[in-house]
Design a protein that fits this description.
The protein has 305 residues and is an all-alpha fold. Helix content is 74%, strand content 1%.
Length: 305
Amino acid sequence: METTLRTVPKQRVRINWWERNLRYVLIAPCVLMIVGIGLFPLIYSLGVSFLRWDVQRRGREFIFLQNYIDALGDGRMWGALGHTFLIMVVAVVCELLLGLGLALVLVGRLPGKQVIIPLLLMPVVTAPIVVGNAWRLLWDTRFGPISDVISRLLGYPLEIVWLANPRTVYPVILLAEIWQWTPFMFLVLLAGLASINPELHEAASMDGASGWQIFYGITLPLVWPVVTLAVLFRALDLFKLFDIIFALTMGGPGTQTETISLYVYTLGFRNFRLGYTAAMSYILLIIVSIFITLLWRRLSEQRED
């Protein structure tokens, strides 16, 4: 009898423990996998950044912060950052304006809307490397359809190497990038515009407000949180722009269109300067974190105003 009385409380304690902690036990494998996949490479690469690890050299010498000092003095890295920010700013602004215009047109009732929206979204679901190669063929000087059409319109052969000409290479890259990702901006903004109560627009119209006043006073403030998120997503994505540049120009002519992702790829997977590449990656992580924080605060302040 005493044994039974002692056993029952222990069983109840075990059952209660499982009931309280079952959810943690179930998610533990997933959490361990995420930590293992995400945290281990982060810590390992941090250790590598303190080493002179170069395939062309023997051994791995501990040099502490020397890789970081060399990276901060690397003019090519700052040039690649400048190219990246240039593409980012122009592309985000164009995609935002075009996406907002398309969303304003298609948010209401429009004949063929069910067909137009899926067609607009086709570029987004295409792999960027495929888009880059497709546009490279379109801009081919001898056999590309774009050069052929322009030559026919002008009446004489147009021999411009679009992807090697410093004056035309950036418009070509931006055109491909904007063509692919404007539909993403359009879809996000369309969802934001569709969530606005149409009675607000009707009430403002009855009060004599013009279309611009309705847009600036009602539509834009209500859709601004969605605009903020869309701009942040696209800015982060454009900062690691690689595929289209890799397919179109490989950073050329020279290093004029080399983005920071392409430069890091060249250092790590072509020159195999692993320690230097790891240090540069951490510097970029800090720069991106600061940039996104400042951008978020700026957009949040504008929304509050």
